[in-house]
Amino acid sequence: MQLEKFTYDNKIVRNFGIATLVWGIVGMTVGLLAAMQLFKPAMNLGNQYTTFGRIRPLHTNAVIFAFVGNAIFMGVYYSLQRLLKARMFSDLLSKIHFWGWQLIIVAAAITLPLGITTSHEYAELEWPIDIAITVIWVVFGVNMFGTIIKRRERHLYVAIWFYIATFVTIAVLHIVNSFELPISFLKSYYVYAGVQDALVQWWYGHNAVAFFLTTPYLGMMYYFLPKMANRPVYSYKLSILHFWSLIFIYIWAGPHHLLYTSLPGWAQSLGVAFSIMLIAPSWGGMINGLLTLRGAWDKVREDVTLKFMVVALTAYGMATFEGPMLSLKQINGIAHFTDWIVAHVHVGALGWNGFLTFGVLYWLIPRIYKTQLYSKKLAGFHFWIGTLGILFYAVPMYWAGFTQGLMWKEFTPEGLLKYPNFLATTLQIIPMHVLRSIGGALYLAGVIAMTYNLAKTMRGAKLVANEPAEAMPLSKEIVDSSSADKAWHRVLERKPMKFMVLSLIIILIGGMVEMMPTFTIKSNVPTIASVKPYSALELQGRDLYIREGCVSCHSQTVRPFRSETERYGEYSKAGEFVYDHPFLWGSKRTGPDLHRVGGKYSDAWHYNHLIDPTSMSPGSIMPSYPWLTEQKLDISTTASKIKAMQTLGVPYAEGYDKKANDELMVQAEKISAELKQNNINVKSDREIIAIIAYLQRLGTDIKANKQEIPSNQ
Amino acid sequence: MFNQIKNLAGGEIYLISSLLMFMVFFLIVGVYLIKLSKKHVEIMSNMPIQENQTEAHEED
Lengths: 713, 60
Hints:
The structure holds two protein chains of two kinds. Chain A is mainly α. Among the domains of chain A are: 296-473, Cytochrome C Oxidase, Chain A (Up-down Bundle); 536-708, Cytochrome c-like domain (Cytochrome Bc1 Complex, Chain D, domain 2, Orthogonal Bundle), CATH 1.10.760. In chain A, 63% of the residues lie in helices and 3% in strands. Chain A is built from 27 helices and four strands. Chain A has helices at 11-37, 52-84, 91-111, 127-149, 158-176, 194-212, 215-229, 236-250, 265-277, 279-292, 297-302, 304-326, 329-335, 339-368, 376-409, 422-428, 430-459, 488-494, 496-520, 536-547, 562-567, 603-611, 613-616, 627-630, 638-647, 656-677, 687-697, and strands at residues 4-9, 180-184, 187-190, 466-471. A two-stranded antiparallel sheet of chain A has the order 1-4. In chain A, a hairpin with a 2-residue loop joins β2 (180-184) and β3. In chain A, α1 runs antiparallel to α2. Chain B has a domain at 13-47. In chain B, 53% of the residues lie in helices and 0% in strands. Chain B is elongated. Chains A and B meet through α2, α7, α8, α9 and α13 of A and α1 and α2 of B. Chain B: Keywords: Membrane, Transmembrane, Transmembrane helix. Chain B: This is CcoQ/FixQ family Cbb3-type cytochrome c oxidase assembly chaperone. Chain B: The chain crosses the membrane at residues 13-34. Chain A: The chain crosses the membrane at residues 12-38, 58-78, 98-116, 128-149, 156-176, 202-224, 236-253, 265-283, 304-321, 341-365, 377-399, 434-455, 499-519.
């Protein structure tokens, strides 16, 4: 056999690297803006495109899919070629992948501030962009598997298994969580409703963390850490065990995001049990990473890339220990909806994803430019300011979380809520939010320093766009010399397609066991006779609620705690959400829960509160929404919305779509007249009327026949 | 403080069966790992740091 000469494509790696840097700065800057909005409402900048509700999804999407996404592709394209001793399958596919992904990011950056959102967290992008994501993801998959097929290395190293699992699982998650019925070019309704929608969303949300923020990064860790330390991974066997356990267990844990909600109890219990078990494979990965450095800790002292890796692994270990703890019901009862969760995810995001990305960038860029890093000193500065940034971010957020979670639950000796006004608990933690944004600013300063450092490195040298390499081709025939060679995993390591199918089956098990009964067994979502579909005006109002991103700060699910039933009213039942496409339970209470807000205040209160929140709640940090009185409600969409809801099984009367707008105007006139009595003159065709109608309807249906409410708690 | 929790879903059977399911899965992977040959493990784990060699892959 002849030694084959070929080249590695470094240009695509460099391009993804630059995209990582650029989107990292953009995403983190938007995050810093959102953080400041939480203590200084003026930072909402007085226009609808930059309010917190629209900026927050922009931040999460930018850092997850733009910053981390590009970093994943950078790491995969670099390591895959070298581990397989082959150039990427197709330069054209690489290019389409790169530019397609950047276009999707741009589309997100335009649509989210415009309020075009599905409201599913980390899946906010509307259906045309969802389709684009699917296409580009397939391009990535074809490129990866094409490379695997033309490889010159028989066995697939553990990093590649993680890449394959990432590809397969993200495809499944994205497709299942994007079943939307379009009503126009940029508006759709999820086919799932209420509890079922919540289960699908958090199965997706949790596993986006698992298979976008974790498995590809573990793959990168298994490749780059041994490279940086110049020693093999501590235990290859542990990596096999931890890989299969991780992908098997992770997929079950989604319901821990829905504890104490009206999700069936058995599904919640499964979510908790698997979350606890998740400690084992997660720590397996962390220990394997840290022990790879055994005997090489002297290198850590000198090598900044290894410093970043050590902090990344430590943060991974902390976050993956904390996650299971947070999924214990007792702890979750306090932590959920508070800043504790924000602290938890940022330990993972800033520490694990951020620092690992920085480590890889500092290692990889000088190598593909065949040069030295411009300034080691500046990289050292980045390490320390970044670490300090994480501490300044996380510690105040933990403090804020504990404080608020406990304040919500505190009773006086007489048995009354000690802080009946929700706002008191928000104002208490404002100083913590100020400190948090200082932490964020420090972290961002580090990223800017890194970008300068790497830009200087790149400008001072020339990219080795096509790096020459040589390897023996694979022989077609495989002679099995020993029976051990037939062991299933060794066979799998040579058969990428079978490997992919097996991974697929394993990740499907958990999702199927949890979703199928919830979708098919009626008793899991008991219906309530008095719960009726929204009126046309309320439905329009609900879509405005979605557009403004109210769900970012207000939950719509009252948990069965005395502290919550005292504060908000009757706890939420599964049957109340059967017409909610999508569900709007939320995951954070920066403001109070709104599920029982209907009828609690007058229309005039809501009007004044939306125009100037501080007029009704002095000190409130909610943004003002003056444009709701200026903008006319678009009623041209009413008929198509009603028809879409009918298709999805919402029992509107036959032909209701034709008379819906007449009824809408009657209801709007009524609200407008009511406001007039309170000396508020607003035309009935304004958006604010619809949103008031929706808020006044929330959670009121079950009050009609309290005796007949089934309990599924 | 925890007395405020009104009711806990009695899902013990799900907890036990999920633990069992994982144990079985874990044991299958465990048995395989014990049977794995040392030579293979060594070659696999050296893969990232020996990629410059032209003939690093295992002789079958």
